[in-house]
Design a protein that fits this description.
Layout lengths: L48 H20 L6 H12 L5 H8 L3 H13 L3 E5 L7 E5 L1 H21 L5 H15 L3
Antiparallel strand pairs: 1-2
Helix pairs in contact: 1-5, 2-5, 3-4
């Protein structure tokens, strides 16, 4: 998920130029905007990919937070546990890169997960200078339940999409933020 100030040339078109708001495609017809009920015209915002992606993300995150409250997991804590569950021994540096978070933020997060008994720190198997992070037995059990719940909540949150549309959406979103 993008944070304020991020993005850079990621949103650039094929020629590397950022589209200007003035060149944004105008809706063919004046759609009823999602904000019409409050008297605001948000049709321009709704023509922007970033605005729609953020609104969709917030909608899904709301459901996520509600359903993960039982496990006391935030989005980023869940993401760290999932990465460690599928990549035992990953380093803090790898996690920062995969999740686009700053090292100081990860330090406190790892300390919190360690204090809760969800992860363990062990010497890295191939890099003597690094510490590998692993799920504890408790962390593995929690992750199994949390990942099952995450799959179910995503199905619910995207219920208005067909399976094919959901896969297409995933593919398109990955193409927006992935290099190459």
């Amino acid at each position: 998920m993008l944070r304020a100030g991020e993005g850079g040339a990621r949103g650039a078109g094929q020629n590397g130029a950022m589209p200007s708001p003035a060149s944004a495609p105008a809706p063919a017809t004046a759609p009823v905007s999602a904000s019409a009920s409050n008297g605001l015209d948000s049709s321009f915002l709704e023509s922007l990919v970033g605005y729609n992606a953020r609104r969709a993300a917030l909608s899904i995150i709301d459901v996520f937070m509600d359903r993960m409250a039982e496990y006391e997991l935030s989005v980023v804590e869940f993401s760290v546990l999932s990465l460690l569950g599928h990549n035992p021994g990953a380093t803090s540096r790898q996690l920062c890169g995969a999740l686009a978070i700053l090292p100081p933020n990860l330090v406190s997060l790892v300390a919190s997960l360690d204090k809760r008994g969800l992860i363990e720190r062990k010497p890295h198997p191939t890099d003597g200078r690094a510490i590998g992070l692993y799920l504890s037995r408790t962390g593995k059990a929690l992750l199994k339940k949390a990942e099952a719940r995450a799959v179910a909540l995503e199905v619910d949150a995207t219920a208005r999409l067909s399976d094919k549309e959901r896969l297409t959406l995933l593919d398109l979103l990955k193409r927006v933020y992935s290099p190459g």
